[in-house]
UniProtKB/TrEMBL annotation:
SMART domains: AAA. Keywords: ATP-binding, Membrane, Nucleotide-binding, Transmembrane, Transmembrane helix, Transport. Gene3D superfamilies: ABC transporter type 1, transmembrane domain (1.20.1560.10), P-loop containing nucleotide triphosphate hydrolases (3.40.50.300). It is a multi-pass membrane protein. GO terms for molecular function: ABC-type oligopeptide transporter activity; ATP binding; ATP hydrolysis activity. Its main location: membrane. This is Uncharacterized protein. The keyword Nucleotide-binding applies. One of its GO terms (cellular component) is cytoplasm.
Length: 597
């Protein structure tokens, strides 16, 4: 089935990929053929990058007629037997409507087509036209037959639209060409406009920046793949809403990229400078080097405490930012409803509360971080005083000359500056560690329902039989609210089964369980159910009833029951006992021999 709607939705990728969305494994030849059937191939080949042309967000780089023809090609690439055209030309001007209508007429040949339109020009070539009014068919026939009926509703609508189109054609002819020329000029200017940021990049840690970008790319792809693999219950949690996940993918990836990119180069350079400085200082004066090393250890301890503190704050901050992001996305997406409810003030208050919570977290950071930084700035003069005092003693004892003293102080300054560079990156390091931890938690999480797994039983000839056996289910987000309790349903192959009931009774839940969005808490859902090794997939009562059915299948005259209910609980024993009594009633001439204790 192929569908072309009134407003074509194109994704912000290439024309080739947009058409390929209609058929995932479509070849280049199939895509080209679908574009030709939709009369889109010619204008695509005139574009600078042809099928590799990026259409922009929602196809903004293309006109309405071009988008509609690409959407038609996307519907035709799968070679549908049934084509649905839902007012496919109603949003187009006269010129584009004629072009798209020709493509639609070509696409309709040889396949069943249902056309929904209020512009009657779109249905003139239909084999059968049905005119609706208040939900009822008031006229039907071909275009010629309906037009021949003077005074018919279809004839009146056609004449009214012909008069309207005559006026619109005049306006369309005077305005279309200048607009198209202007659009082409704008597209050309945008495509030729250079990105000057490429020329202004002065990053001297090129290798680290490239490796960081590549690592971030791999992490984003892997994270997105893991999100797609999670079960539906994972997305029911507030912290895993669409807005929170989008915020996580963007901000966490940026934090990791910054740290493993150019900042990692700064850290490596600083550590190397510090190590070399300490070693050389030990060569000239091990006494002064020990004092310096003690001070450096204090600085590293301060930096470690600051990173740890900021990491804890980041966990709280990520939660608040995720909620704020989800809230804003939800409000903007449902802005029409917000306007209808006139609740702008209330939603603004709720969003302000989230922003205020974020400010409180930052305020705590503004109190603690300066205290930790004061340890660095406050102890430096004291340490330098101790170094000068020790140096004075060593020089006085002639254990150190002035030349070596100057060298020690030079390497001391180099080592101290390298540590200072590291301490200035504590915020970036804490953000990166928190983001990396978030990614690793996602990577390590095992989905309860992995839709990418090919393990398990595969039904080679599925006929459509479905069975719910003693199913109990509650949504993970509402574990105390039981939706299904001992739900029993058997659907045979070919049956049409209807589920009715009040809202919230579990009708949609049954469908979601069949699609395996969730797993039941108890019970079993079976498709062409297999009993497993020694009936391991069935309960004792179920196995016993199947054994009875097997015995009754060839209508025996003598039925032997060897302690048939001895290993069951009272509930299953009653069910099996009723089955045995029913089997005896069905054939009064059957002889039964029962052994029981």
């Amino acid at each position: 089935m192929g569908v072309v709607s009134q407003e074509p939705i194109l994704f912000g990728t290439s024309i080739y990929e947009n058409i390929r969305f209609g058929k995932e494994n479509a070849t280049i030849a199939e895509i080209n053929e679908a574009a030709r059937q939709a009369t889109a191939h010619d204008f695509i080949m005139q574009l600078p990058n042809k099928y590799d042309t990026i259409v922009g967000e929602r196809g903004v780089q293309l006109s309405g007629g071009e988008k509609q023809r690409i959407a038609l090609a996307r519907a035709l690439v799968k070679q549908p037997a049934l084509l649905l055209l839902d007012e496919a030309t109603s949003a187009l001007d006269n010129t584009n409507e004629n072009i798209v209508q020709e493509a639609l007429d070509q696409a309709c040949k040889g396949r069943t087509t249902i056309v929904i339109a209020h512009r009657l020009s779109a249905v003139q070539n239909a084999h059968q036209i049905y005119v609706l009014d208040n939900g009822c068919v008031i006229e039907q026939g071909t275009h010629e037959a309906l037009m021949s009926q003077e005074g018919s509703r279809y004839c009146e609508m056609m004449r009214a639209q012909q008069n309207e189109n005559t006026e619109n054609d005049i306006d369309g002819k005077t305005n279309t060409a200048p607009i198209e020329d202007y659009d082409q000029k704008q597209i050309s200017e945008h495509s030729l406009r250079p990105s000057y940021s490429e020329f202004d990049d002065e990053n001297k840690y090129t290798a680290f920046a490239l490796s960081g970008s590549k690592l971030t790319e791999r992490m984003c792809i892997k994270a997105f793949a893991h999100y797609l693999r999670q079960e539906m219950a994972f997305f029911d949690r507030p912290e895993n809403s669409s807005g929170a996940i989008c915020h996580r993918l963007s901000s966490d990836a940026l934090a990791v990229q910054q740290m493993v990119g150019s900042y990692l180069g700064i850290v490596c350079e600083s550590v190397a400078t510090f190590g070399v400085g300490i070693v050389i200082a030990f060569l000239f004066s091990w006494q002064l080097a020990l004092i310096l090393l003690f001070y450096i250890i204090i600085l590293f301890f301060v930096a470690f405490m600051q990173i740890r503190w900021k990491a804890q704050l980041n966990k709280r901050l990520d939660c608040v930012l995720g909620l704020a992001s989800s809230f804003s996305v939800e409000i903007i997406y449902n802005m029409r409803t917000v306007k209808q409810l006139a609740s702008e003030t209330e939603f603004l208050r709720q969003f302000s509360d989230l922003v205020l919570e974020e400010f409180k977290i930052h305020r705590n950071d503004l109190v603690i971080s300066p205290l930790l930084q004061s340890l660095y700035w406050g102890t430096r003069p004291l340490i330098e005083l101790v170094i000068f005092w020790q140096a004075f003693i060593l020089v006085e004892r002639k254990e150190l000359n002035m030349n070596n003293l100057n060298k020690v102080f030079a390497y001391y300054i180099f080592a101290l500056e390298s540590v200072r560079c590291i301490t200035t990156l504590t915020r970036q390091m804490s953000d990166s560690l928190s983001a990396a931890q978030s990614f690793f938690n996602l990577f390590d999480r095992t989905s309860a329902i992995d839709n990418s797994s090919i393990d398990g039983q595969q039904l080679s000839d599925f006929q459509g039989a479905v069975e719910f056996s003693e199913v109990k289910f509650a949504y993970p987000s509402r574990p105390t609210s039981c939706i299904l309790n001992k739900f029993q349903l058997i659907i045979k192959s070919g049956q049409r089964v209807a589920l009715v009931g009040a809202s919230g009774c579990g009708k949609s839940t049954v469908i979601q369980l069949l699609e395996r969005f969730y797993d039941p808490i108890q019970g079993r859902i079976g498709y062409e159910t297999r009993v497993g090794m020694k009936g391991s997939h069935l309960s004792g009562g179920e196995k016993q009833r199947i054994a009875i059915a097997r015995a009754l299948l060839h209508r025996p005259k003598v039925l032997l029951l060897d302690e048939a209910t001895s290993a069951m609980d009272s509930y299953n024993e009653q069910i099996v006992q009723k089955a045995l009594e029913r089997a005896q009633t069905d054939d009064p001439t059957r002889t039964s021999l029962i052994i029981a204790h």
